[in-house]
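tokens incoming
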């Protein structure tokens, strides 16, 4: 299967170009953690005000759908997922939004949003580790990755290195899971959350 492009995603959504405001590639193929069998993940922002946030599946593709309003709201709340799209490198910007979206950095909102999501992911991963080890490894990885990305935004105003966590995923995906190893991931979550708190201080 060839790497899906903008027209392929339009076909999955059954929409014309004019109906799409912006489109971004996201996920493992941006983080540098994909394998040949990994799905292709996209975010499509619809041009109209109608519709709702949704998830559409195609042949090896997953497309998160936003309206302009819902995507702007996600940015206003400093959702890391939305910020990944806003700051996506040029090869992963399939259609540039026009007009562009607004984003004003508020480190307090950023710290709250990233820490809440990361702690929730790590907690869920810890509860399901025995029953779902592979899924739990992924959740633990994303908990730390979200905080690392948030720290980039807090320090530099944007995500500058999307592959920062690639080596971390290799470690989490392949290392034997012991209690001490798992606890170390939780310690990293709390350490990063604490650093975000310090950066959010007035």
């Amino acid at each position: 299967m060839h790497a899906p492009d903008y027209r392929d995603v339009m076909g999955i959504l059954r929409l014309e170009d004019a109906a799409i405001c912006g489109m971004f590639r996201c996920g493992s193929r941006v983080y540098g953690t994909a394998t040949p069998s990994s799905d292709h993940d996209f975010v499509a922002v619809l041009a109209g005000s109608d519709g709702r946030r949704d998830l559409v599946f195609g042949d090896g593709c997953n497309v998160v759908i936003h309206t302009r309003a819902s995507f702007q709201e996600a940015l206003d709340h400093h959702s890391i997922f939305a910020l990944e799209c806003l700051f996506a490198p040029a090869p992963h910007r399939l259609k540039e939004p026009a007009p562009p979206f607004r984003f004003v950095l508020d480190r307090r909102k950023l710290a709250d949003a990233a820490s809440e999501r990361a702690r929730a992911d790590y907690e869920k991963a810890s509860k399901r580790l025995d029953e779902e080890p592979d899924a739990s490894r992924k959740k633990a990885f994303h908990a730390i990755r979200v905080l690392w990305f948030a720290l980039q935004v807090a320090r530099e105003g944007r995500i500058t290195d999307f592959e920062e966590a690639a080596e971390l995923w290799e470690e989490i995906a392949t290392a034997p899971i012991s209690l001490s190893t798992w606890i170390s991931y939780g310690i990293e979550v709390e350490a990063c959350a604490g650093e975000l708190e310090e950066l959010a201080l007035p």
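note: The beta strands are 20-26, 40-46, 54-58, 61-67, 93-95.
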